[in-house]
Amino acid sequence: MSGVAASLLLASVHSIVLAIVLRRRGRNRRANGYLGALLAVMAVLLFDGFLRAEGVHTRHPHVIGLTAWVPFALGPLVYLYVREMTSRERAPAWRHFVVTGVYLLVLCATFFPRSASYKRDVAEHHSSWMITALEVALLVYGLAYAIAALVRLRGHREHVEEVYSNLHGVSLRWLFVLSVLNALVWIAAIVAFVIRMSGVVESGASSLIVPIGSTITVFVIGYFQLGQAEILVVPAEPSAALAVPPDPKPAPSYQRARLANDDAAALEARMRAAMTDKKLYVRSGLTLPELADEVAATPHEVSQVLSTRLGKNFYTFINEHRIEHVKVGLRTTDRPVLDLALEAGFQSKSTFNAAFRKATGTTPSEFRQRTTS
């Protein structure tokens, strides 16, 4: 057994194990259902790649094409998983698999009943123009879904920054990594297709691009699922409704409730006082509705002031005050940096370090050394 074949077989088994683990989880059952289905589909694709790498398709031509419809399910499943993790949308999922079902019916009618020699010729030379056209359609289809998932995640990121002062547990950064990896696999498959059609690379080598990319994706999912199980737990605070926004990119709140200039200026003053006098930013879980309650306003009104008068979102507004709090501590005390960061409301060292470097262009240690020397 070759190294590639062994890797594909291991990844296939790994996918099945992960899918079973996900079925046992109580939270985010719908999202885990989509992810489990994705892993099961990947297991089929990876096992087919294993059979191809071992030459089974050559010895048993009727195996060829049995999983040709499977890649059409990958894009929709990734997208539906992202949709479930970033919104409460409940649009029917079946319509995303119409193309998959139609393609399977086409295969049943036009390819599966054909002779072994025909299937072997198609696999080796892609001699049918219809097969080539369907392959192009698959690549475009898969990449379109990958882009749609990334667009939805970008909208989710913008939304949570309007509501949360800390993004731990709601930013879904790992899901962004997974979606980018998914998009890269489809791009690689397109490149491999172009190269194969030009005759530079044999079809057998290029056909392993997607299975190998899927292998990497499966192990990435496994790392996060088994090593960092909390990433799939939608936080219960401050509320489940906030944790999963109703729309991936809602209309700006200031378009729904516009304040007069004098009222907006007064509200801005109260918001700044809540930061400087009450030091509200030290609450690590502070949210937009909580700030609105403190300043006797609605979340929409606070959002309007942040957007139109300050030109920033809630996340940036709060963390700027946290950074200033830490900077004062660095200049006037010798307390550990992490103590100052946690006191200011940051939830982790990595988040603080990234925010501090972005705001000051330097590390906390360098800032302390420069300002106290």
Q: Work out the count of structural domains.
A: 2
Total E-strand runs? 0
Residue-averaged pLDDT, rounded? 80
How would the global form be characterised?
A: elongated
Described by strand count, sense and barrel closure, the largest sheet is: none
Which H/E pattern describes the elements?
A: HHHHHHHHHHHHHHHHHH
Question: Low-confidence runs (pLDDT<50, min 5 residues)?
Answer: 227-255
Structural class: mainly alpha
Report the top-level CATH class of the largest domain.
Mainly Alpha
Q: Determine the number of helices (DSSP H or I, runs of at least 4 residues).
A: 18
**Fraction of residues in β-strands:** under 5%
Describe the structure.
By secondary structure, the protein is mainly α. The chain folds into 2 domains: 3-234, Up-down Bundle (Rhopdopsin 7-helix transmembrane proteins), CATH 1.20.1070; 253-372, Homeodomain-like (Arc Repressor Mutant, subunit A), CATH 1.10.10.60. 69% of the residues lie in helices and 0% in strands. The protein has helices at 3-23, 29-53, 56-59, 71-86, 98-110, 116-125, 129-163, 173-197, 203-206, 209-227, 240-243, 261-276, 288-294, 299-310, 314-332, 337-344, 349-360, 364-372. Helix 7 runs antiparallel to helix 8 and helix 13 packs across helix 14 (299-310). The longest helix is centred in the middle third of the chain and has 35 residues, at 129-163. The radius of gyration is 26 Å and the shape is elongated. The chain starts with a helix and ends with a helix.
